[in-house]
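Run log, item B.
One chain of 176 residues. Sequence copied directly from the ordering sheet:
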Amino acid sequence: MDRKTPTGFSKPHGSREEQISALFDSCYPRIARYAYSRTGDRSEAEDIASEVFVRALQSIHTYQERGLPMEAWLFRIAHNLVVDRLRRISRFERADEHEEFLQDANDTAHIAEDRILLSSVKDAMSLLTQEQREVLSLRFFAGLSSKETSVVLNKSDGAVREMQRAALQKLRSLLK
């Protein structure tokens, strides 16, 4: 049975290797969604999510629990990998990669509307600060709470909530 830590992350029992294995099922999809929201490339996102667990297993012997759960450590690894990849690749995002997330594939009018909306949101997101994009990606694509996001970004919970508020306010004004 998982236990919740003060940061909101689950804390599985067992050896560290068993803990990572147990976290794989719950964290891999969330890490992949987070990476996808930052890279815009599904294949790249899946590579990053896989790399998180490879690196975690390779460095498990150096992991020290300092009041933060292993799940926060995994998201920190994901954050660092995403930042590294974004530094290496161009800022160009492939719009075609987003098509698989569009609903009602048989309804061309709906697909066209979704593409226009997705393009508008993507353009508006590019006008946010790097930190605001990170906060929104962790909160809404990875599904982390503000407290969990604060652990990953090494910011206070209040700072994360303020960045989220400012980012959403700016997005609303840009999308009007």
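Observations after the first pass:
- The first helix runs from residue 16 to 39.
- Strands lie at 3-4, 10-11.
Flagged for discussion on Thursday.
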